[in-house]
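Usage

Read records sequentially. Each one opens with the input sequence:
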Amino acid sequence: MDSRLKLPYINAVKNELAACLQSTQVNGNPMAPLTLTMLTLVVLDTLLQLAARQCNRARLAGPLPAAFAGVYTSAEYNKSTAYLGEGMALAQWEEIFDLILLAGFWLSGGFAWLDSGVRTMTLNPVLCGLLFFGVLSLAKTILGLPFTLYATFSIDARYGFNRTTPATFILDLFKGLVLTAVIGGVLGAVLLWALSRFGSGYWWLCWLILIVLTTLLQYLAPKVIMPLFNQFEPLEEGELKHSIEAYARSIQFPLKQILVMDGSRRSTKSNAFFTGFGKHRRIVLFDTLIDKHPPRELLAVLAHEMGHYKLRHTLKNMLLSYAYMGLILLGLALALDWPSLPAALGLAPSIHSSLLAVMILFTPLNRLLSTILNGYSRRNEYAADRFAAHTTRSPQDMIAALLRLARDNFSHLTPHPLWIWLTYSHPPLLERIQALEKTTQGFNPTANPHPSDSPAKAPPGHQVNPNK
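and closes with the structure output:
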């Protein structure tokens, strides 16, 4: 596969920007400086994303890193990089398509056309806003379907990941649209009603209401929403369950239940996660994860996740998400008192037009904020790795689990630093392994107080080197 650095995607965006700038009309009116500024920021943000992704794609052209020589065969690594390259190329074309769609709809007066259409149906500010965003969301989903279908039934299928049938895909799509309409409708209605009833000065009240609703949603999701898409069964009695429960007790982790999810129904990729709050924490293991990893590796992975809870990363991330929500609402409150902002989209002042303008304006700002939050998240991942290594007294098990996950899920082994800085919430694999290897000194590899199988080893050929 030729993954040399090429720029057809960036050139395509430049051509689109040039075409946009040649037209000085927005909905029949001269383009205002604010319109040009907002559009330029969106284009520059897309260019940055495309350039970073292309740099990351170019890194696939190198040979298999020496550190992974015993983990991958040449054929496995070539297959992995080919899969990643195709996925990145598809993502680039989708980003270009999204930019052209947004710029074309914006500059042709599409937002104003949609706004006038929903206003002919109702003048109620809540219903008007819900219809406006509902149509935009539905259109975006439909127009993005070709990319999703190709990724699922072509790329994933050719590389052995996809197990989703067309019937399951259609049913998932239908359920997702209904849930989006219900949940998004409730949250949107509350926000629009509160702002229309109390005014922009009470944005903080909207913030508090949305915090309550989103927290409630996180509590209901594992009980009501997730079972609509997957089946969850209690983990059967045995060595794995007993070792997990014993470990949870040893670190005083409030574990209520261990569940197995039928992830293999849609994909061969594997994962694990936690749901619930306080004393109602549940561990969810993909059935594919159980099939591919011995109990000691599974325990190491779960110890890492429990580490996030014990180190209060989960709580801190929740608070950060609430703070980010408040920042968006503050921006919306300011936009409501700045009528020229929705006018830059060709829209008359309203709550939903101001919200759309803020969402577009937040796109480049979110890039900056996300890089900061991603850096914070990567630091937390290192801390959770150390927690798992110290509490299980077996860094080798965590290393083996990471290597197996990377090999089976086709992870990028040599990501570009720019792409890491922009998008990675987890450290690159090699850096995580090197950090874990530093913790091997002082550990007895056979000392593990929890029921488990024989000591796990890294995949054949990989030797842990504490001095790397």
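Summary fields computed downstream for this record:
- The longest strand covers residues 255-261.
- Residues 351-392 form the longest helix (42 residues).
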